[in-house]
Amino acid sequence: MQTSEPLQALLDVLAGRVDDAPRLDAAGWASFVADASRHGVSALAHLELTRWPDVPADVVRSLEAHYLKNRLRNLRLYAHLGALLERLSAESIDVVVLKGAYLAQAVYPDPALRVMADVDLLVRTRDLERAAQVLRAMRWQQGTSRRASAHQLPAFELDGVQVELHWTIEDDGSPFAIDIPGLWERAVPVRIGPVRSLALSPADLLLHLCLHSAYDHGWKQFDGGLRQLADIAAVLRHHGPTLDWNDVLLRAEAWHAQRCVSLCLVTARDLLRADVPQAVLDRLALPDARWTRIARELCLGGHYAALTRRLPVLARAWIDKRWRRLTHAARWRERLLPTSESLRPVYPKLGAAAPLLLLAHWKDLAADALRIVFDASSRALLARERERRVLIDWLEGGAADCKASNCRSGAVDHAVVPQVGGPR
C-alpha cells in the first residue's frame, strides 16, 4: 500500500519527524484534515501545527474546531464519570478506569487531545450487578448489545455519554491468558478529576492497548488506526522513564500475547516513532514483513469502511468474528438463509415479512458477487480481507503455540528474563 502525500504528512507531523509545516496544496491540506478526522487525531495534529505560522489559516481553524468540540464533549463526559465514580466509591465498589478516560487525563498533556467514544470501567465479577444497579439508579439507560460480547455488559447511556462495564479486558473465550486477579493486585491509585479511582499498572496498560489495537477481541484488527497507536506512543513518553520492560516482556509471555504486542509495538514505532527499545523487540521476536505490511494497511487504509461500503452483505458476515468459527456448511446457510431477526435491522422499511427480507438480501448478495467478478477494487478488498483472516490466525496461533509448549502464566518471575532497558 502506497501512502498518499497528505497521509504521510500527517504521520510525519504526529511523529515529530519534520521541522517545518508540510508543503501541501489546497487539495492536499483538505485530505490531511480528512485523514486526521478519520483517525481521531485532529486535536493532536492541531497541537503540532500551531507551532508553524505558515500553515493555512483555514486548516488551523478546521482542526481547532475538532479540538474544541472534543474538549466540550470530554468535559461533559468527565462530569458524568466523576459523579458515577463517587457513587460507586460510596457503595464500596472498586473501579479500574480503562483506556481513553484514564489516558486523556493522566497521559496526554491536555484531556481534549484524546477522542473518546465511551467510558470503559473494569469492576470485579462479584460487583458487576451492584455496579449496574448504581448506574440504573442514576438514570443511565442500558441498551441492547449489537454484537455478542463475553467481556462486558451492554452499554449504559446518559446525556450522550456511554459507559461500558467490563469484568475482564478480553473475552472469556479468548486465546490469551489474561491474569485478571493480577490486574487488580497491580492496579495503581489515580485521580479522575476530584475522585479517587484505580488504573492499570503501566506494564498492564501498555499490554492492554497492544491487545486492543492488534486483536480487538477478534473483531476488527487495527481498526482504531492512528488514534490507538498514538495512545501507545503517549504511554511510552509518559511512563518511559519508569516503565519496567522486564515486566512487559514477562507478562506478554504469561498472557500468550507476544505476537500481538510485538506487531503493535513495531507498527507504532514505524508509523509514529514510538520509543520502543530495540532490545525489547528482539526479545519479543520481530514479526515478518508480511504481518507488518498487513497491519500497516489495516491501520491506514480504512479497510473496514471500504469493505462495508463496497460489499455490504458479505462484509456483515466477514467482520463478524463468529464467521471464522463456523463450518463451511454453516457459512453457506448463514449467507443464503440468514434469520429474519438478523435482516430486520438491515432492511427496516420491509417490516417483519420474512419472504421480502430474504428477497432483498438475495438481491444485494448477488450485487456483491457481481462486483467481485467485474470490479478490480472489490477483488482487492476481498484479497485484503483474506489476508486479515490469516493475520488473526497468526495472532491466535502464538497463543496456541504458547499453550502447547506450556508457557508460564500467572505471577511474574523477575529471575527468568534478564533486565532489558528498564527501569530507565
How does this model look, in words?
Residues 408-424 have low confidence and may be disordered. By secondary structure, the chain is an alpha+beta fold. 57% of the residues lie in helices and 7% in strands. The chain has a five-stranded mixed β-sheet. Strands 6-7 form a two-stranded antiparallel sheet. The protein is globular.
Question: How does the SSE layout of this entry go?
Answer:
Layout: H1 5-15, H2 26-38, H3 42-49, H4 57-90, E1 96-98, H5 99-106, E2 119-122, H6 128-137, E3 141-142, E4 156-158, E5 161-166, H7 180-186, E6 188-192, E7 195-199, H8 202-214, H9 225-239, H10 245-254, H11 258-272, H12 278-284, H13 289-300, H14 303-310, H15 312-318, H16 328-336, H17 340-343, H18 354-374, H19 376-404
Helix pairs in contact: 1-2, 2-4, 3-4, 8-9, 8-10, 8-11, 9-11, 11-13, 13-19, 14-15, 14-19, 18-19
